[in-house]
UniProtKB/TrEMBL annotation:
GO MF annotation list: double-stranded RNA binding
Pfam families the record matches: Sua5_yciO_yrdC
Gene3D superfamilies linked to this entry: DHBP synthase
Organism: Capnocytophaga haemolytica
Coiled-coil parts of chain: none
YrdC-like domain boundaries: 14-201
NCBIfam families per UniProt: L-threonylcarbamoyladenylate synthase
UniProt-recorded name of the protein: Translation factor (SUA5)
Length: 206
């Protein structure tokens, strides 16, 4: 059964954050708060954990479209091809924020993502998520969690999330109520930016 821990976003407790990092380093899956909906995540470099998330989502790992959650933009060049100054200025202006940007991946992608031409990059405006990534030392792979009913309603109450997910993940972080609107997804991998999904982030940013 999963651990359930409370972390406050205004002042995330280092000791609690380190417990989360330990779970990730040991190949565990976590559910954690972001600036949009709660996310399901694992260490980007742990194949077994990645396969678990792909199974939960019902997709093959090589076909899965997971986002890379980063703590800031400084590691961007580790995973994406060189971006021009206009794109970088745009990212700097709206991140951290409720966006996922799809960009061309480079040759340094972790082994499980080598075949991917593009990668979704996310820097959430949530201190808990960013501190976890900082302490882990590399991004976490992430996907949103939602209810399986006709209308996709993202679960916002951490206690209800725990009830539902306690036997499928290793840790659920209670960071307060989540949002029920996902991030806005913008494809920057082509010549022109393309909005793939309108979510919480304004599309009026260009």
């Amino acid at each position: 059964m999963a651990q359930f821990i409370k972390i406050y976003e205004e002042n995330p407790n280092e000791k609690e954050l380190n417990k989360v990092v330990e779970v990730l380093q040991n190949g565990g899956l976590i559910i954690y708060p972001t600036d949009t909906v709660y996310g399901l995540g694992c260490d980007i470099s742990n194949t077994k954990a990645l396969e678990k998330i792909a199974r939960i989502k019902g997709v093959k790992l090589e076909k899965a479209n997971f986002s890379f959650v980063c703590s800031d933009l400084k590691n961007l060049s580790d995973y994406v091809k060189q971006i021009d100054s206009t794109t970088f200025k745009l990212l700097k202006r709206v991140l951290p924020g409720p966006y996922t940007f799809v960009m061309q991946g480079n040759n340094n992608l972790p082994k499980d993502f080598k075949k991917k031409k593009t990668v979704g990059i996310r820097v959430p405006d949530n201190l808990i998520a960013r501190r976890i990534v900082e302490l882990l030392g590399n991004p976490i792979v992430s996907t949103s969690i939602y209810d399986e009913d006709d209308v996709i309603e993202y679960t916002t109450d951490p206690e209800l999330i725990f009830e539902k997910w306690q036997n499928r993940v290793d840790m659920v972080i209670d960071g307060g109520y989540g949002d029920n609107v996902a991030s806005t997804v913008i494809d920057l991998s082509g010549d022109e930016p393309k909005v793939l999904r309108e979510g919480k982030g304004s599309t009026d940013i260009f």
